[in-house]
């Protein structure tokens, strides 16, 4: 209990309170005088002007340190607030405007910091609204202020410096904060109970009613009022004359202490006598005056007094006082309280044995063994054991455990261990977990590549303490994972990638080049190579050296790396303008790419700088220049065909008669052999790179080809380069020269040797603890184990991992648990109260009756020797009973035979019986024939060993069998097996074992496991299933680049947590798109040279003029692979694009000017009407007639879009889908597209047209992309099954859990929603001690006085849901030691039964509800308080002087509530109403509400109704009596009451003369009519609205009447005499009936 308050009466209070109220008052007074008042103005008393200073500015200065200064602004301010010139303020009071300061620089931040003290005590705020005024009213709490000190200190020596230094870096911490102080809380009591019945059935008696305490006073609140009210009551029936005025009751006192019998001399001093004096204290027990020191064992006894070898009990006696009391509290003769049997004044008892304990054990180790951030001290314990069980009311045992603080500061302790997560190396990259179920069955797992996942194991380790010397540091050994539970473990799953075979996107082959030496810088021999190349447009990953060969070569003869390039001019005749002449030509040496080289590089002699030529003269034949060579007929020379090409020239003008003749027809055509190299193509093929090996000849210091730095050695990789013949295979080594050595790929390259990795393992964990207690005699030897974890696997020839990762050993031999047993001695004879005691006391004098018999108990060890009793207290189980009741037969006792044997049982559920009979005279005694007192037959249920199995609860979920864990020597790197998640499992249902009475027993008596087991099946998750790929569609573009597609469609949706489907389109399909190209036309026209211009000449004239020439046209098909044209029907080619087969031509006559054919048109820079293009020709032969000019040599035409001028567009196809390697399922890939060059008219042209326009520069044909991997959810293994949630009963469940290591991503299998599994636990019976309720107070053998109330301690069994279900009694041995349990519980309690007329205390009230101390509805404490009380009951007025004090007490409680209190008021009735205080939970209380806010219970009119015939109405305003009308003042108050005209009254009265003599009181009926009176003023004193309305209507009506009268009545003559003004009737009438 917290504290106890006793209330003596209504006025006197005797209390013990906490010192909180005194301390609070002292702090309040201290706060009033200690708070400084600061002002920011200097105001002299004799002046109206004062100085006002601004804030100090920032510290400035040239250097950091104390040489800085800061300034502030000063004003001269008038008291009214306006500023004026500084001269008006006194100079002597002028504050300083400049002061030195410490200039702080940035690096000072590490030198200074804020030093903050703890918050001080909460004190009241003395100022409110800027006035010096204490708060006189407290609602729920009082606002206070806490302060603390803030300093700026140096970090080196903690000395204080100016606050401005630290303010430069950070804001100053607050020095004040608001706090709350609870308001004084008055005592709160409940409402009174109803009045009790009258204490007498006739005449004058007493009635009482009580109330109980709900909340005790706190923080100086008002004390509790009297809890009892008493009033007299008079019974309507008069007491008959001569009847007894008093009642008599036999009253007993408390039993004395148990004592041993004494000699006669000492007996008289301790004899109990009858005392007829009145009791002074009702609850006082008179003690015997003699000493009791002979009971106690002397302190100087030998060692066995504390550690006895046996226990013996002694039997003594107890006595008590017996009195006969009258109802007025006085004692009378015992004969007036005669009972059928004399009262019992003595009885046998057990002499008290005090509890004995052993010496204290040594202090345990301190719980705080290291230094941590937690500043709380540690503690250590010491214990002692009980060596003597208290008995007979002996002293209870003291505390058996003691705790004290230790290592309070902990400065000398080592740092506490810290724990963190560590992880092993990542495992191998695996792609199989990303596959669906169907893909796993179809795919070649070993050939997979691309993105995958890899896992690792996490474990918890202890971090070594850095403060410990190196030789004492602990290694980071694994510890339990729960020590790292506060931190999130590192990721156990990550993405990875396995390299795939590279895919290369290549360009088309270039044309075959000229015959060149393999090395033009060092030409050798006369054999060379013609080569063609292709380029890598995109590679799937680097390096690109795994792409196919990029160069193909063919051997050739007479290679030439350099040649002469000739640029000729026009022919210059030597004489005149025609005839022989010379052509000057520019000669330069160029390489095979057309680049100019030094002349010395060309081996052949240079061509001449001038060559002869001839300009045709008039009349000569004119022949055109040679055409370009036609395409070669074959790409290479074979045995059956020779590749040739030709060129031609035509006759432009026939000769005249004397002119030079034309050459013969064969001279107009030339043929030459082309592509004369054999059809043999060779290329270099490179094998994959071999492994990186260490090469001793590698110069590590001179390797400039390796940029990375590594501790590992640099090696080489070797591959083989083979010369391959197209479509044949490798050539023999002798013919390796058929491949150019310059194109030979490299066969050796540097590499980084893989580092040698040794296996790394953690140190062994600590050994698991061994049992610290002893082991049973037949128990198995316990073992302990330890393990370690592989953190890095060995590779590249590193040290292999150890074989032993798990060790197990037997624990050190534990002692066998000692075996001790109790040894009981023989029962002593029955001990009763001796005759020497009986003779001095009232009661039966015969030496017989009830008594006690005892026996000794000792402890026997394993070998049969007696040992210390404490050993049996620890190991031997419950202590046997040492005492039992007995009886020495008296003469008048009933004689009975001994009980017979129990009858035989006929089976389970039956009963057995035993009998006895009366003997001798007892058969005729009436009291012996009472079956209740002396039963002659007993029955009991027969023991039954049959048990019943009963299932409990529901079936558990289907559980898969646990995977086999690796044995101690088989533990390896984390297995990559797939944990089974579906299939056949088992489910459990708990089975309880019950006896025939339905009581649960151990389940192993019915079943081996305590479960019912059934086979079940967990359906496997089904992944989303798609169809196979469809066939490729046609190319989306009929001409040029496009996409072709294929698709899959949905066949089965995912089920039961399977992998979801990919993103499907509206048709439930997924598709794949790749680029494609459709030839715009596989057919094209091939033309041959024009024939000779044929002129039809009739006359014998030279053939000249216009003619016709023709040519052959054929349609050919281009073979896609070989490129060789094949003639087909002309209908296959586009007829619109067919070239003309014939054309008009002209041959110049001998005298005409001959011009060369037109050259090519120049390019149009812009396709608009203002642009033109031109072409030119030159003169081949001048006209014979000098007067005849040659035609134009230059021709121009406008640039017309899509006719003479074309624009070009680079058209791109759509992107393909992300393309992966054939063996990859996700990860990095590429998407490609293709482009075509379109002419403005929509026709596709060669790509170089767009290249010339620069259209290809801004576009990319390939991009990297990535396909998200369908990462399935990765879970940890199931944790071990946790311990059962309940150690017994049917509610226990074991749980195991999984942890998500990797969330599902993209199309991966999702994580299950259930990450925990439960299974039932075996149903074991729950045994509990149960205490019955206290019995009523019983007084043995008397009517009132000191008695006892009891409660029983029993053992019950239930299934864990008690007290919700029924519990059944079982033998107490199943619950434990009854004696020890009874010592922990109070089984008997003294009580008092009041006699009629006694003034006594009521029973304790129930504990009130738990209430918290709250501030504005919120509590600031974790535990509350509850109270209970006892009120005083007065039965007879004469006994008030002997009344005890009322008592209340409090105790802490949990789960309290905040309560508020509010005044409640009833309805008004005759100007009165009920007012009470109500708690927020609806309970009516006394106390808690502020008296200042208490509503009034009686209603009064203000001002008072003093006018004649007025009274206060229930509405709270003054009104007039019936028959009178209120006349109100302009303010709405009653002016006077005037008699209503026409209302008869029983009495006449003159207001002027009878104002003070007649004021009859208003009756209820009169008040009712008075309320009906129309009143212009409401109860609140305001004029009612209808008054204004009536006035307004009346005013309008008067105006209307006046106007109407003026119009209708026109008086002829005005009256000169006016009648006397009349007073209005309502105002002139004074209430006199005579008027």
The fraction of residues in strands falls at 25-35%
State the major sheet. 5 strands, antiparallel
Indicate the mean pLDDT. 78
Helix content bin: under 10%
> Roughly how many Å apart are the termini?
85 Å
Taking pLDDT < 50 over at least 5 consecutive residues as the criterion, the unreliable ranges are: 1-46, 127-135, 263-304, 470-474, 699-711, 964-978, 1545-1573, 1612-1635
Q: Number of helical runs?
A: 11
Strand order of the largest sheet: 19-17-103-102-101
Give me the count of strands: 107
Structural class: mainly beta
Coarse shape: elongated
Radius of gyration: 63 Å
What features would you describe in this structure?
The chain is mainly beta and 1635 residues long. The two termini are 85 Å apart.
Offer a quick outline of the entry:
This protein is mainly beta and 1635 residues long. It has eleven helices and 107 strands. The strands form 41 sheets. The chain has a five-stranded antiparallel beta sheet with strand order 19-17-103-102-101, with no helix packed on it.
């Amino acid at each position: 209990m917290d504290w106890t308050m006793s209330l003596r009466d209504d006025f006197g209070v005797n209390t013990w309170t906490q010192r909180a109220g005194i301390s609070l008052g002292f702090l309040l007074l201290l706060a009033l005088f200690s708070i400084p008042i600061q002002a920011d103005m200097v105001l002299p008393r004799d002046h109206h002007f004062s100085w006002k200073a601004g804030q100090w500015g920032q510290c400035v200065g040239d250097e950091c340190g104390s040489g800085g200064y800061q300034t502030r602004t000063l004003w001269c301010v008038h008291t009214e607030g306006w500023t004026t010139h500084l001269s008006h303020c006194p100079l002597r009071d002028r504050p300083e405007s400049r002061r030195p300061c410490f200039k702080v620089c940035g690096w000072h931040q590490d030198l200074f910091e804020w030093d903050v003290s703890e918050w001080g005590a909460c004190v009241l705020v003395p100022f409110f609204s800027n006035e010096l005024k204490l708060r006189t009213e407290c609602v729920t709490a009082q606002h206070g202020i806490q302060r603390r000190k803030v300093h700026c200190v140096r970090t080196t020596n903690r000395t204080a410096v100016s606050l401005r230094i630290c303010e430069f870096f950070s804001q100053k911490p607050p020095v004040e904060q608001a706090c709350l102080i609870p308001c004084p809380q008055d005592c709160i009591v409940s409402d009174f109970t109803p009045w009790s019945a009258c204490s007498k059935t006739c005449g004058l008696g007493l009635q009482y009613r009580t109330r109980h305490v709900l909340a005790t006073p706190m923080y100086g609140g008002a004390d509790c009022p009297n809890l009892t009210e008493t009033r007299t009551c008079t019974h309507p029936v008069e007491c008959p004359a001569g009847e007894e005025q008093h009642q008599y009751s036999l009253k007993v006192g408390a039993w004395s202490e148990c004592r041993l019998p004494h000699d006669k001399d000492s007996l008289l001093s301790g004899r109990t006598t009858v005392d007829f004096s009145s009791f002074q204290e009702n609850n006082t027990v008179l003690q015997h005056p003699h000493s009791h020191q002979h009971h106690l064992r002397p302190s100087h006894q030998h060692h066995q007094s504390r550690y006895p070898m046996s226990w013996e009990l002694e039997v003594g006696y107890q006595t008590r006082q017996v009195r006969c009391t009258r109802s007025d509290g006085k004692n009378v003769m015992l004969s007036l309280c005669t009972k059928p049997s004399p009262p019992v004044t003595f009885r046998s008892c057990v002499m008290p044995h005090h509890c004995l304990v052993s010496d204290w054990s040594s202090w345990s180790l301190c719980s705080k063994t290291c230094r941590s951030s937690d500043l709380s001290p540690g503690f250590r314990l010491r214990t002692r054991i009980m060596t003597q069980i208290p008995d007979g009311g002996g002293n209870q045992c003291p505390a058996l455990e003691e705790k004290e603080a230790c290592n309070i500061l902990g400065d000398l302790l080592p740092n506490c261990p810290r724990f963190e997560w560590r992880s092993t190396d990542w495992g191998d990259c695996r792609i199989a977990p990303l596959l669906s179920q169907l893909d796993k069955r179809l795919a070649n797992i070993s050939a997979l590549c691309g993105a995958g996942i890899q896992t690792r194991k996490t474990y918890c380790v202890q971090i070594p303490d850095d403060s410990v010397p190196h030789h004492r540091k602990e290694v980071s050994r694994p510890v339990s994972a729960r020590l790292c539970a506060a931190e999130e473990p590192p990721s156990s799953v990550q993405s990875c990638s396995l390299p795939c075979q590279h895919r290369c996107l290549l360009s088309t082959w270039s044309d075959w080049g000229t015959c060149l030496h393999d090395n033009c810088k060092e030409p050798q021999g006369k054999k060379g190579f013609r080569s063609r190349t292709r380029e890598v447009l995109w590679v799937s990953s680097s390096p690109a050296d795994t792409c196919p060969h990029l160069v193909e070569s063919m051997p050739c003869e007479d290679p030439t790396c350099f040649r002469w390039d000739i640029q000729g001019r026009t022919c210059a005749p030597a004489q005149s303008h025609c005839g022989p002449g010379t052509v000057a030509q520019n000669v330069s040496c160029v390489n095979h790419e057309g680049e100019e080289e030094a002349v010395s590089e060309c081996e052949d002699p240079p061509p001449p700088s001038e060559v002869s030529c001839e300009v045709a003269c008039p009349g000569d034949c004119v022949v055109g220049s040679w055409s370009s060579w036609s395409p070669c007929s074959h790409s290479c020379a074979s045995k059956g065909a020779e590749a040739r090409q030709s060129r031609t020239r035509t006759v432009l003008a026939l000769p005249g008669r004397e002119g030079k003749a034309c050459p013969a027809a064969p001279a107009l055509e030339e043929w030459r052999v082309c592509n004369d190299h054999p059809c043999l193509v060779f290329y270099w093929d490179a094998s994959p790179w071999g492994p990186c090996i260490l090469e001793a000849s590698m110069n590590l210091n001179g390797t400039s080809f390796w940029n990375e730095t590594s501790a590992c050695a640099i090696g080489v990789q070797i591959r083989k380069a083979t010369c391959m013949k197209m479509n044949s295979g490798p050539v023999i080594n002798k013919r390796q020269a058929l491949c150019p050595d310059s194109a030979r790929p490299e066969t050796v390259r540097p590499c980084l040797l893989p580092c040698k990795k040794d296996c790394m393992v953690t140190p062994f964990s600590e050994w698991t603890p061994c049992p610290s207690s002893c082991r049973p005699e037949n128990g198995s030897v316990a073992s302990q184990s330890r393990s370690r974890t592989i953190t890095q696997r060995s590779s590249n020839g590193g040290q292999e991992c150890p074989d032993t990762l798990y060790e197990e050993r037997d624990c050190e031999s534990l002692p066998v648990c000692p075996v001790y047993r109790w040894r009981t001695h023989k029962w002593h004879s029955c001990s009763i109260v001796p005759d020497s005691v009986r003779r001095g006391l009232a009661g039966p004098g015969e030496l017989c009756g009830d008594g006690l018999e005892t026996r000794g108990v000792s402890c026997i060890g394993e070998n049969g020797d007696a040992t210390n009793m404490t050993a049996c207290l620890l190991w031997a189980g419950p202590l046997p009973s040492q005492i039992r009741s007995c009886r020495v037969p008296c003469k008048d006792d009933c004689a009975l035979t001994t009980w017979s044997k129990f009858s035989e049982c006929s089976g389970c559920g039956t009963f057995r019986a035993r009998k006895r009979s009366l003997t001798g005279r007892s058969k005729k005694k009436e009291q012996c024939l009472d079956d209740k007192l002396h039963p002659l037959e007993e029955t009991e249920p027969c023991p039954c060993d049959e048990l019943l199995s009963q299932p409990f609860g529901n079936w558990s979920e289907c559980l898969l069998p646990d995977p086999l864990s690796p044995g101690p020597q088989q533990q390896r790197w984390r297995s990559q097996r797939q944990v089974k998640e579906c299939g056949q499992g088992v489910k459990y249902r708990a089975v309880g074992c019950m006896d025939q009475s339905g009581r649960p027993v151990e389940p192993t008596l019915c079943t081996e496991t305590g479960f019912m087991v059934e086979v079940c099946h967990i359906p496997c998750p089904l992944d989303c299933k798609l169809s196979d790929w469809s066939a490729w569609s046609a190319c989306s573009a009929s001409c040029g680049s496009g996409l072709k597609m294929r698709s899959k469609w949905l066949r089965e949706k995912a089920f039961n947590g399977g992998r979801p489907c990919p993103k499907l389109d509206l048709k439930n399909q997924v598709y794949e798109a790749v680029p494609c190209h459709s030839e715009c036309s596989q057919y094209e026209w091939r033309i041959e040279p024009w024939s000779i211009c044929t002129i039809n000449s009739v006359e014998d004239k030279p053939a000249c003029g216009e003619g016709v020439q023709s040519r052959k046209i054929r349609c050919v098909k281009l073979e896609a692979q070989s490129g060789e044209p094949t003639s087909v029907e002309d209908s296959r080619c586009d007829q619109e694009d067919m070239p003309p087969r014939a054309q008009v031509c002209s041959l110049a006559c001998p005298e005409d000017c001959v011009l060369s054919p037109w050259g090519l048109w120049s390019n149009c820079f812009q396709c608009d009407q203002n642009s033109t293009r031109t072409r030119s020709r030159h003169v081949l032969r001048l006209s014979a007639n000098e007067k005849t000019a040659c035609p134009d040599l230059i021709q121009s035409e406008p640039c017309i879009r899509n006719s003479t001028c074309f624009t070009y567009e680079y058209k791109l196809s759509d992107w393909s889908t992300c393309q992966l390697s054939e063996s990859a399922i996700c990860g990095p890939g590429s998407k490609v597209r293709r482009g075509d060059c379109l002419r403005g008219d929509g026709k596709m042209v060669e790509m170089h047209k767009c290249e010339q326009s620069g259209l290809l520069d801004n576009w990319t044909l390939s991009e990297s992309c990535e396909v998200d991997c369908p990462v399935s959810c990765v879970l940890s293994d199931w944790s071990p099954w946790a311990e059962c949630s309940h150690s017994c009963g049917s509610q226990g469940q074991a749980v195991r859990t999984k942890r998500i290591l990797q969330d599902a991503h993209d199309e991966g299998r999702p994580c299950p929603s259930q990450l925990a599994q439960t299974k039932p636990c075996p149903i074991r019976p729950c045994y509990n001690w149960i205490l019955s309720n206290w019995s009523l107070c019983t007084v043995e053998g008397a009517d009132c006085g000191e008695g006892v109330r009891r409660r029983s301690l029993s053992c019950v069994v239930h299934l864990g849901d008690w007290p919700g279900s029924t519990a059944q009694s079982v033998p107490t041995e199943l619950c434990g030691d009854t004696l020890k349990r009874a010592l922990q519980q109070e089984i008997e309690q003294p009580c008092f039964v009041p006699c009629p007329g006694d003034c006594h205390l009521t029973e304790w009230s129930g504990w009130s509800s738990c209430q918290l101390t709250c501030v504005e509805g919120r509590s600031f404490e974790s535990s509350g308080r509850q109270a209970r009380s006892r009120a005083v009951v007065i039965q007879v007025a004469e006994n008030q002087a002997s009344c005890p004090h009322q008592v209340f007490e409090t105790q802490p409680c949990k789960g309290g509530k905040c309560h508020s209190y509010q005044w409640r008021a009833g309805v008004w009735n005759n100007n009165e109403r009920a007012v009470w205080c109500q708690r927020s939970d609806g309970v009516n209380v006394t106390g808690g509400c502020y008296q200042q806010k208490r509503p009034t219970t009686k209603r009064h009119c203000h001002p008072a109704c003093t006018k004649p015939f007025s009274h206060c109405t229930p509405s709270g305003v003054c009104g007039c009596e019936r028959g009178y009308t209120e006349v109100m003042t302009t303010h709405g108050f009653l002016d006077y009451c005037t008699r209503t005209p026409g209302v008869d009254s029983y009495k006449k009265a003159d207001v002027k003369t009878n104002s003070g003599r007649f004021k009859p009181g208003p009756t209820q009926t009169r008040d009712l009519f008075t309320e009906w009176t129309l009143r212009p003023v409401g109860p609140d004193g305001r004029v009612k609205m209808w008054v204004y309305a009536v006035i307004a209507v009346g005013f309008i009506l008067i105006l209307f009447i006046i106007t109407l009268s003026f119009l209708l009545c026109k008086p002829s003559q005005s009256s000169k005499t006016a009648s006397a003004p009349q007073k209005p009737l309502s105002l002139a009438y004074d209430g006199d009936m005579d008027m």
